[in-house]
From TrEMBL:
One term of GO molecular function: nuclease activity
The protein's name in its UniProt record: Bifunctional nuclease family protein
Residue ranges of domain BFN in the record: 2-133
Species for this entry: Candidatus Prevotella avicola
Length: 191
């Protein structure tokens, strides 16, 4: 089963302004899935949200999508299927053929916005990762396991500098957990 999502907000992480966040909400606007992104993707989405579609119609993503659509390749959707090492496993899927194209989650959401593609998340993933959505809230909860390792190390540095040792401890524990998991993943079974 899957849950249809839509982009509800784009912002920066309060504790680390160099990290962007995209908030996707379900159809009934009660659950939110947060995806981190770099500032480039955040800025690309922010400009489009602020200025509307006519402003960016000559930009590369819009032009490339029009070319693909005019060539008959317009039956696509975005599927968010899982999570591994802080990264959502995301595919651009051709619904006509079933062909899947792995894509970074943040780029997939930008493409979905540009091309008006539907976005779906696996229900089990939503049950584990989504947080309650409050449209007028000043912040949104985000599980630490959705943050890429490089970004986590940056957040750890920021937390230590800010003397937020409780947050630093949680981040350190997540990094250690991933290191252990990555080592376990690399062990090959005996034959």
């Amino acid at each position: 089963m899957r849950v249809k999502l839509r982009l509800a907000a784009v912002s920066n992480m309060r504790t680390s302004p160099h990290i962007g966040m995209m908030t996707l909400v379900d159809d009934i606007e009660c659950r939110a899935l947060v995806i981190t992104c770099d500032n480039n993707v955040r800025e690309q989405l922010s400009v489009r949200l602020d200025r509307g579609p006519s402003f960016s119609r000559k930009w590369l993503p819009e032009v490339m999508w029009r070319v693909l659509r005019d060539m008959g390749a317009d039956q696509f959707e975005i599927q968010i299927n899982g999570l591994m090492a802080g990264e959502y496993l995301t595919d651009l899927v051709c619904t006509a053929t079933g062909q899947r194209f792995p894509i970074r989650a943040s780029d997939a959401i930008l493409l979905a916005y540009v091309a008006n593609l539907p976005v779906y998340a696996d229900r089990t993933l939503m049950d584990r990762q989504a947080s309650p959505w409050k449209p007028n809230a000043l912040s949104v909860a985000m599980p630490v396991n959705v943050i890429d390792g490089k970004v986590l190390r940056s957040l750890l540095d920021d937390a230590v500098r800010a003397e937020n040792y409780e947050l630093a401890s949680k981040i350190r524990d997540e990094l250690k957990s991933r290191e252990k998991g990555e080592r376990d993943d690399m062990i090959e079974p005996e034959i």
